[in-house]
Amino acid sequence: MTLFPRSLEEWYKPFTKEEKTWFILAFILAIILAATTLSWFFIDPYHQVPAKSYAISPNEFDKLAATFASSYKDKIIPEGVDVYIIAHQFYFNPSKIILKKGVTYRIHVSSADVLHGLSIIGEDGTVYNLMIMPGMAYVIHIIFDKTGIYEILCNEYCGSGHHLMSATIEVV
Amino acid sequence: MTEAGFRRCMATGLLVHLASQRLIVFNFLMGIISLIIGGIAAIFVGLTRSSFVLLEQLGLQNTYYYWLNLHGYNMLIFWILWFEVALIYFVATILLNAPLYSIRLGWLSFILMLIGWLIMNVMNIAGDSIVLFTAYIPLSVPPIFYLGYLFFVLGVAIAVINFFLTLYKARIEGKYAGHLPLVTWGAGIAAIIGLVVVAYGAFAIIYALLFSSNYGLSGDVMFYRWFFWGLGHSAQYVNVTAMVAVWYALIALGTGFVAAKFINERYARIAFALYTLFVVPGIGHSYFGGSWILSDL
To answer: How many CB pairs under 8 A join A and B?
Structure first.
């Protein structure tokens, strides 16, 4: 009985038929879930967005992003040009970028101060999601196959203005 | 016959050590107080996310993060760990007809946890420490917050050690024969997972403490995140495992021991063993969503 000490002979009982069934069912369910999670990497590579990372100081990256933002303000970013986005408390710089449909871009993202999130949301839902860290830049290779407006939202709590952080990607 | 310092429970016939009972009650009460604070905060978390008409009149507009912070700490750290300490004292003393290994260590643990709880909750209620449960650095608050956190976690560590020493002492003094009751065993698994919480947590909290004190630490985000989730995820496992152990106690107590006959303890003990095995791998899911694990794909 569960509240009192017992000897091994008293509590080590063989499983009944029902207990065996449920145990096996639970085990199979766990295996299916694990297999689904792991195999998704191979089943749906289209939605895997490859990424690299490198270390860079927030100040350096801020300069790169500022240069990029001023060079390509309101211009369509040509193929082959690296995009730089930096997250500050509580805005993204640049706050709007214009990309071409069907072109693979390398987008470098980093943070100037605290942890932020980068969540790219299209009309069909979330396209991409990652956490941005200061001192580290993430390069995502991404291709937009539909035109439209995509919103970039910060989805990692970064302070009192967290819910106000957003940027836009316009795909033409 | 009942020894001095003990009373006999009329429902189960178990011997209750009165000094240990006092510690159980005090830890449990602190858990309930934390639950109430967290619960009230939960109501306001909901209200401040809604278009509740009185938000402005009550001065509550833009206070969502404040309530979320208060709710998170009280529900995810304080309630869980205060109750866990009360539970492990209970299962190691009353269920084994034994006293706690050291009442003094019990009170030391309580005082450390109380000081930590007070420091953190006073700051949370004043709104000086809105970092949320994750408290990801470089977001930081006055270092005394992390000092309070450290006190709390150390208090838990001492309570867990006291628990294991109690089990050991009860065994060698022959206070019980055979294997530990299932409920004690389950709560013991929760205590082991609690050690994982303390082990990871000490690194994360000390790192955050030093970083927020500006001791020239670079604020390595990944280091903090790694160790914080060792604390954060495992603490929830402590809660779940303790809950299951309490279920098994309730089945016995709630049905006058009738239904407890049908529990297959071997089955239950295997489940507890699986919980323990998969705690540390389970922490791993918190490390995704960033570049440092999946780079160079």
So the answer is: 115
